[in-house]
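User: I've been going back and forth on whether these two constructs are worth ordering. Before I decide, could you fold them both?

Assistant: Sure. I'll take them in the order you sent them. The first construct and its structure tokens:
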Amino acid sequence: MDFSWFRDLGNLAQTGNFSQAAELGNISQPAFSRRIKAIEGWVGATLVDRSKHPVGLTSAGVQMLEAGQQALTRLETERNQIREAQSLPDNYVVTFGAQHSIGWRFYPAWLQAFEEAYGPIISRLRADDLPACLKDLRDGELDFVIAYDSAFARSIDGEPGVESVKIGQDTLIPVCKCGANGAPMFEFSANTSVEIPYLQFGENAPIGHHIAPLLKSHDLSGKLRVVYENSMAGALRIRAREGTGVAWLPRSLVAPDLEAGLLAQTGDPTWEIELQIRLHRLRGNANQLTRKIWAFLSVREPVPLVTKL
């Protein structure tokens, strides 16, 4: 059995002419005819209807060509992956990019849980703003990007060739400093008549895109007074702990502060914003290791919200 016979059969089906098919295969017509006879002898059936002009495949020929092409595709894919694996160094570093608020607490816990289930990998995290992470993903400098999604905003929308899988969840909650009695310093509600100081994510911070639609839907423009703006969740966290105002921050980030009484959640649960944490990749930018990681995560349950480390 010679798998090149299936290429010959395909060329003949494409051209309907022995001479033209032989030229496509870069062999002489007599040699080409002998190879077609050889595959027919191996199958034990006539695969080419020579009574027609142009010639065509019999039903048996169509069946064998389809099976042969599928086998060739599978074999070539496996060969390429084997060659790729042999060329991939044992110390390949899997690179992740993540928004700062994800990299602070969720990512270390997620990576530990992932390695316990999958096995150890050598990895590196680049914590940056989302647009920079996406640029690095497109440029091939990152294997994966981790970002938030919510009902209000998609982290990566309309990026060609980008696909994602859910790996965790979190919640954006309004928090502020605790008062002397342990209650929130600022009691937040839609019906409040008191203007509340607001610690706001910068206009270009993607995490703020999950918050703005909620505030707009409740028409809070006249009730929140922006007193500080920063694109970094960590910076807003510090200002909230100082008592400067109210900020919407990931629960995983502020969990230690809530437990220690440094911050308190204000407002009722309707002000919470559920977040999905999703892993993104550029489909065409993958190697054997990153494909295996992707396949593993595609069937794995997302990591629960981590509130303690």
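The second construct, handled the same way:
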Amino acid sequence: MMTAPDSIDFKSLKKRASEITDLENFGNPDHLKGLEGLCYSLQEEAKLNDIGKIAQHSRIVGILVNRLRFEKELESYPEIKDESILGPIVIVGLPRTGSTMMHRLLSSDSRNTSMIWWEGRNPSRFPSEERGKPLKRIKAGKNEVQELLQASPDLMSIHPMDAMAPDEEILLLEHTFYSTVPESFMYVPSYSKWIEEQNHTTAYEYLKSLLKYLQWQSPNRSKKTWVLKTPHHMGYVDIILKVFPNAKVIQTHRSPIDTIPSYCSMVTTLAAPLSNQLDPKLIGMYWEKKLSRVMLHCMNIANQNPSNFLDINYLDLIKNPLQQIRKVYNFLNIELNQKIIAEMEKWIQENQQHKHGHHEYSSSNYGLDDQIIKEDFSEYINTYIKRV
């Protein structure tokens, strides 16, 4: 087993990635400022145990390796930049609102495409990999999911992990060091503060470039509409509309009294193996406040751009998925034919709710009070929940 590093150092991480690839160009230097801040937080604030230090060292080196290889690919194959991204359809909403179900249902339409989990972890081709034959990256993704589930067995009942399934392109945004991924399983307050102070336009431009790269790797995607999904987008949906002018946004809604403690349970599950000094109440307080802020931002942008947004209620989606899908396709002005309905019905039958067990959680575990949640999300509840 790898020995835990004495420190998670910015310069040594870059050096290690360059040694692996024999490359030096990491791309946009602004993104590496985020890495520098992340390294400080990991070293001084996160209280990582040895497993956490090893995991983060490996994860960051992997991200840097991907960046180096991506820049080399752009240099070698400039036509990547000429790829055209159709759509995208962007699914946003508080965590635990049925957005994963919506994402995977839309992705089951063979006319659409999404980032697959293994692609998010290794978007760049491995050395000597033939275009369209990513077998080693697929194997690496499957191995990593297996390791994640061994470390956090309850994860499957919270978020169905599958290396071969569509998943959140927050994994691609993580490559910019402007994402909320680190704070979703570690205590990194100074880094989190820095993230919220930045203009994320370059991060979303980088995301668009990575989507073009994935599309170039699989030419059969070129005529398909991309489906994106992550709660992270709520805080930056205005930037999405700027970087992706044709984006259509689907908002999934559910009472935050249910969603906030559920998400805190997921964060705790992910964080538990990495630190021996986990404070669930700190997690609860942080995410309740943060999610209320980004939700308000998303609401404001939706109010300013009503023709770009569609609202879907979680309870309606669970009760009658295809009825809500028809609503989505009417909004998108896309035909929903019998072939697509059959594809979606097959997905629904194979992915029944609670297939991997019930997700148990309680607000009190995270120091949360229903009244505080109601107050912080009052505008959201009055707008989207009470009217249902």
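Notes on the second construct follow. The longest strand covers residues 86-93. The longest helix spans residues 50-76.
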